[in-house]
Amino acid sequence: MDPITLRLPHTVQRPQELTSYGPTTRTTQPIVTGTSVVAFKYKDGIIMAADCLGSYGSLARFRNEKRLTQVGEKTLLGVSGDISDYQYLQHKLEDMITHEYDMDDGQSLGTKSVYKYLSNIMYGRRNKFDPLWNAYVVGGIDNGEKVLGFVDMYATTYSSDTIATGFGSHLAQPILRRRVEGRTEQITEEEALEILDECMRVLFYRDCRTFNKLRRAKVTAQGVEISEPYSLETNWDFAEDIVGYGA
Amino acid sequence: MDFMMHSEQQNQLEPTQAPVERHSHNQWNPYVDNGGTSLIIAGKDFVLVASDARQSVGYNINTRYDPKAYELSNKTVLATSVCSADAKRLCEVLEQRAQLYYHKHERQISTQALAQQLSNTLYSRRMFPYYVFPLLGGIDAEGKGAAYSYDAIGNMERVTYKAFGSASALVQPFLDNQIGMKNQRGAEGERMLTREEALRLAIDSFTGAAERDIYTGDWLDIFIIDAAGVHKETRELKHD
Q1: Fewer CB atoms < 10 Å away: N or C end of chain B?
Q2: What domains can you pick out in chain B, each with its CATH number?
Q3: What is the CATH number of the domain that holds A58?
Q4: Helix H segments across chain B?
Q5: Tens digits of per-residue pLDDT, A128-180?
Q6: Is the minimum CB–CB distance between A23 and chain B shorter than 8 Å?
Q7: Residue A16: pLDDT above 60?
Q8: Mind telling me how many Å the CA of B85 is from chain A's nearest CA?
Q9: Residues 6+ apart with CB under 8 A from A103
């Protein structure tokens, strides 16, 4: 081939009218989304739940999304909001964990470090007016201390004994405030699971972007454990009594 | 970015106005108001800084304990309000600057120098401000209590007392009355408070604010700074 006409992909000039057409575009709305994440502290550590749905607007598009993941050795990450932004972030987290592993110094990143890293990324993207459209819940045990934190697309961060994102902040948080706040150390795993299921059931009844296939996860001194998908018992008997609405 | 804070007003049209097609697309608003109130009172040889710890968005309480006032050194405290994300970053930046000063000059940064540094840091972001209204408390070169108040873009003023945040409209008039002695017949200008008086006024200000302002409550962090250093205490406020 004539060497002069050879064009590498990055040297290809786009037509002038294409490069200069329209404004720069950024994420102005999420596309495939995950709904609430519910999490709280209990006696043995942190417990968290999220369903497996990736919504495309009102369409229940992806029905096997994993929205709870392990980061490093003892950190649990729950995500709501845009799934593609989350997958991008997951790659960055993997890079970071790999980098730390390569150091080969016998140390691993604690939950607080992962949380800080995540928060800094979110803050950086907010400052670029190009946010990652998510709300993250980070849970773990760092040097024996239970850590449960939240970060969203505005890089608002906070820690609390109970955290719920999205619709969960309206529907699950009041339940958690009543049942968990001030008595985290008394809550056994059995009770924690029961509270979690109550929250997820209320969300399933009232939030139209939920799905009755969900996962729960816990972080204890033993490490991270994410469950297989399961379903909740529901009762729709009351539907018989609904009058009106064309029924 | 100042214009973005008023985007709702921009979209409102006068009844006689026809909608005009906008060529620039609407931009995402990066600012959040997380509520909360901060207060500062300077005394003869001390300064009191107080902040509530509730963090909220709209009608939701995110958490009951997210401190808004930070110890930057063993003689300065920075209290913030409004956008929590910006506030936390601003404190980190300022702490780094103070640390840098220490290593450069082998001496801790003075309150006045740190106060100017804060103003410069805020002004450096004139075109994309930190949405924070800081209050800085410390001891000045003469050993007097020094209180500084700022707006979001670095306008700085040394004050004797000031309230900022969601309940500032409730607290400031109270302080004007009790410390400033404003518009009172027979009063002889601003009062110099004792430590006990300042503490009582701060507590009363916040119990009052927590009663009427839904964004103020849960916990109250009070810092009293004097020649000996920073003394911190945390008190309970209304939890509803």
Answers
A1: C
A2: 32-236 (3.60.20.10)
A3: 3.60.20.10
A4: 7-11, 84-105, 111-123, 168-178, 195-212
A5: 999 999 999 999 999 999 999 999 999 999 999 999 999 999 999 999 999 99
A6: yes
A7: no
A8: 5
A9: none
